[in-house]
Each structure stands twice: as structure tokens, then as C-alpha cells.
Design a protein that fits this description.
Number of helices: 3
Strand order of the largest sheet: 2-1-3
Distance between the termini: 32 Å
Helix content: 40-55%
Length: about 90
């Protein structure tokens, strides 16, 4: 299902739907599913770490929203001071 947009939505907001969606996953053999009952698949510490990483990606994106698009399209993305992802 695709919505019609009068302007392109923010990329990082759209990725949050996929990236943050699995934080409530539980394992209740044999199923891995959303929500109880079952044992949570990720610990609170893992969720906090993943959320912090996602927030850092949002900050990177906000500094240069075209960086990821240029890299995907094979263009040279300018090197950023302190960037460690090899881009």
C-alpha cells in the first residue's frame, strides 16, 4: 500500500517504522512474535543501544540528507570529519 504524498516524507521517520518495530518481539516456542506471552527477544539494554544507534543515524542524516542517496546512486559522497562507516 502506497500513499500519495504532496511532498516526500522524511526518510529517517519512514525507517523508524521498520527499525524500531521489533523492540516488542517475544519468543514463545516455536513462535517469534510481537508482544506477550513469551520471553522478550531483546533485553532493555539491547533496545536502549539500538535506539541510541538509530538516533545517531538520524543526527547524521539531518546534517546531510543527501549523503545516503548519493552513496546509493554511486556518486561520491563528501568525506565527513569523524565519520567511521567508510562512506
Amino acid at each position: 500500500m502506497f500513499a500519495e504524498y504532496s511532498r516526500k516524507p522524511d526518510m529517517m521517520v519512514m525507517t523508524a517504522i521498520q527499525y524500531l518495530d521489533g523492540f516488542d518481539m517475544t519468543f514463545d516456542p516455536p513462535a517469534l512474535k510481537h508482544g506477550p506471552p513469551g520471553e522478550y527477544y531483546r533485553t532493555i539494554a539491547q533496545i536502549a543501544d539500538e535506539y541510541t544507534q538509530w538516533c545517531a543515524k538520524c543526527d547524521d542524516y539531518d546534517r546531510d540528507p543527501t549523503h545516503d542517496r548519493r552513496a546509493r546512486e554511486g556518486g561520491e559522497a563528501p568525506a565527513e570529519e569523524g565519520r567511521t562507516d567508510g562512506a
